[in-house]
Amino acid sequence: MKVTVVGAGAVGASCAEYIAMKNFCSEVVLVDIKEGFAEGKAMDLMQTASLNGFDTKITGTTGDYSKTAGSDVAVITSGIPRKPGMTREELIGINAGIVKDVTANLVKHSPNVTIIVVSNPMDTMAYLVHKTSGLPKHKIIGMGGALDSARFKYRLAEALEAPISDVDGMVIAAHSDTGMLPLLSKATRNGVPVTSFLTEEQQAYVVEETKVGGATLTKLLGTSAWYAPGAAVSVMVQAIACDQKKMIPCSLMLDGEYGQSDICLGVPAIIGKNGVEKIVEIELTEAEKEKFATAAAAVREVNGDLKF
Ligand code: NAI
């Protein structure tokens, strides 16, 4: 299994580190546009191999995509995060240009690759990859729900004063502060609905803190998070590499599922060696259906800013 990670910044390097540490693939190639940066990150990570006990080979390249040839999976983390004073259109313009260019290079050298899209605004960037890559739709997966669900579980465990291994929960819809939909109605503590443990005030706290999870970290760190995003990507790559058929909420191209078409949104799916093996349709409450539709409308508006 060969994995390429484009963007050797905070998130890309974290992805490479977790993938290597889990020791399930033979090779990780880091690509960056900054001269020597990917090579440096790869060398630093390789010097942890004997300390951390992994055999994955990590290499880096400054933009030479021939080194990525034959990748089974590619993760796109290249792009800029939003900065103060920037309009949404400017952010989309810059990241869309990067993601489109990177996608073309990846597919040219690895025509059978499965792409995991991380760059923001992620649901729109995943949509862009669908529209420009020529890859079948089961080979394009946006990463948002895996991270947001981990943040949901963190907040649930905090409110329940329970160990995280006791709780289960999932976040679907959009990867944005307003469009995220933590499914409180389906969250459980050892199979028992969490709603039977938490007051309404606690439930509202968990949902709100989950939705602003990324923003909270950006405020604390001065930039966006990298450990949990990297770990979330590594779980998705492992599901493909090891054909786990694991159910993970991911941003996928919908074709009538959840009442939506021609849009990428977070929904639960079975992830295995073929990428997306099946979209799982779960029963939502009326309020959840409404929130899902509202999130879709907002993502559609952002998608409208794309120029192909
Ligand atoms: P960063 O600035 O640390 O790293 C980005 C890297 O991309 C830089 O090293 C830069 O040189 C590289 N790059 C830029 N253009 C490139 C190109 N054309 N080819 C190759 N490399 C290129 O940023 P960070 O924190 O790693 O975030 C990366 C992206 O991931 C951002 O858009 C961020 O918003 C997004 N993100 C998404 C998450 C999600 O859940 N989907 C979670 C966290 C971040």
From TrEMBL:
Domain Lactate/malate dehydrogenase N-terminal: 1-142
Record-listed substrate binding positions: R82, R88, N120, R151
Statement: the UniProt record of this protein carries the keyword Zinc: no
Active-site residues, record numbering mapped to chain: H175
Entry binding sites for NAD(+): G7, A8, G9, A10, V11, G12, D32, N95, V118, S119, N120
PROSITE patterns reported in the protein's UniProt record: PROKAR_LIPOPROTEIN
GO biological process, one term: lactate metabolic process
Chemical reaction(s) catalysed: (S)-malate + NAD(+) = oxaloacetate + NADH + H(+)
EC number: 1.1.1.37
Enzyme category, top tier: oxidoreductase
Gene3D superfamilies per UniProt: Lactate dehydrogenase/glycoside hydrolase, family 4, C-terminal (3.90.110.10), NAD(P)-binding Rossmann-like Domain (3.40.50.720)
Keywords in alphabetical order: NAD, Oxidoreductase, Tricarboxylic acid cycle
Family: Belongs to the LDH/MDH superfamily. MDH type 3 family.
PANTHER family tied to this protein: L-2-HYDROXYCARBOXYLATE DEHYDROGENASE (NAD(P)(+)), L-LACTATE DEHYDROGENASE
Function: Catalyzes the reversible oxidation of malate to oxaloacetate.
Protein name: Malate dehydrogenase
